[in-house]
Amino acid sequence: MNIFLLFIIILLVVETILAHRGFSYENLGSFCKNNTPHGNPNLLPIETGLPRLIRNIENGSLYQIGIDDDQTWLIHVWGMNGYDYGFAYGTLLNEQINKFIPKTYAYFEKEVMEKLEHLQVPDWFKKIIANKGLAFALDLQNTLVEPYMDKEIYNELQGISDGAKIDYKLLLRIHMFGELTRAHCFYFGAWGKATLGGKTLQLRAFDWDMSADLQAYPVITIYHPRSSKLGHTFTNIAWAGYIGVLSGMSSTLLGMTSIGVEFPDDTFGDESMSGEPFIFVSRHILQYSQTVDDALAYISDVRRTCHLIMGIADGKLNTARMIQYSHSKVNFFDDLNLQPAAEWHPQITNVVYNGMDWLCPSYQYKLYQQIMEQYGHITPESTIQNISAVVKTGDVHVAVYDLSENILYLANGAASNKQGPKQAYQRQFNKLDLKIEYDRKQPSIDVVED
Ligand SMILES: *[C@@H]1O[C@H](CO)[C@@H](O)[C@H](O)[C@H]1NC(C)=O
Ligand SMILES: *[C@@H]1O[C@H](CO)[C@@H](O)[C@H](O)[C@H]1NC(C)=O
């Protein structure tokens, strides 16, 4: 009798496990199902040369970092308002913006039209795109989000438009895409026992469609406010003309990551087309939050839009969080309650991490293994050499934030006309000491443009 009961219980348990696995695996795309990532370590030396000044204007300075095929623009802007920021940015990067934005818009438009069915937006919105065109739909989207936007963002876009002489509407539409297209990315935040010397480190590996060639125009922007209404100094890591935040760091020692979710489970809430777009939620955090707690409070209260995983690390409080993000629900995780709880995503003391997507067993587990291999002595160098390159994550860019020292390590993918490996995780990283960058002074007004 007892044995029979035990037998039934075992059957039920096995069935539950199988059903659960069946659910997780069968619903996943081929990307998450079969791939067992294993790449070679990245053995290239990190480039540490100082930024080279290209030119100064009244409210901005343009530099370049890196050598040969791995150069990145570094731009400083100063302002009393968003318009000052934008005008300096648009003036200095005029040429890059005019090459990048129209080409990128055309690429996205083609992609969206071809893959309309698979777009993660409501059917009514797909109908609008199909019937009225993408530009109309993106303008409508802007109308839906406008009440929740920081008005200085619009001023900044207007400044860029005037400085670079590029169509304002086109710039605005590019900034509405973030909600339609989802990037697959990797994140970890590690501190305390996990890292060498107990530093707070963050990996932000951005995987996306490399044929969009975003990586041809990489730009690091340092914003220097001259009025407290613009918050504090912060860094955005993006591309010419893009002012939303996908990756970045703040002078208050916060680091930001966001990861698109294609395979949520029922613990996620629903999505909405109206609210503050997540690229501007992330920017708000870098621009205004003092600590990770401020950031979480902002995320709790703001009107959120889509499914997402966010990662925020804090070099002052020496900790990091992972955020399960959606319109109706939000959950904050640390190392003790990290989700999803699964045998392929074990918890690690003093680490939060997420590989590729919410339900993505092979990549999640591979990231777990590489973190564990370096555990206790994780450094920016070991992350670059042995984690992102081996897990093969970060094709468009890989950023490693040392939030204890305020140093950024960044590699960009190779543009279509460049030599060598394509993916950022196999390219040369540049080291940028943000302490020096944040201290830079606005060029004196007499230094007029050349
Ligand atoms: C530079 O910024 C100041 C405010 O800080 C502003 O008054 C001035 O118009 C700006 N100059 C240009 C050329 O944008
Ligand atoms: C990467 O891993 C190898 C092998 O485990 C190790 O010898 C090397 O020191 C690691 N690299 C860094 C920068 O820690």
From TrEMBL:
Span of the signal peptide: 1-19
Highest taxon of the lineage: Eukaryota
Family annotation (InterPro entries): C45_proenzyme-like, DCD1A/B-like
Keywords assigned: Signal
PANTHER family: PROTEIN DCD1B (PTHR35190:SF2)
Identification of the protein by name: Acid ceramidase-like protein
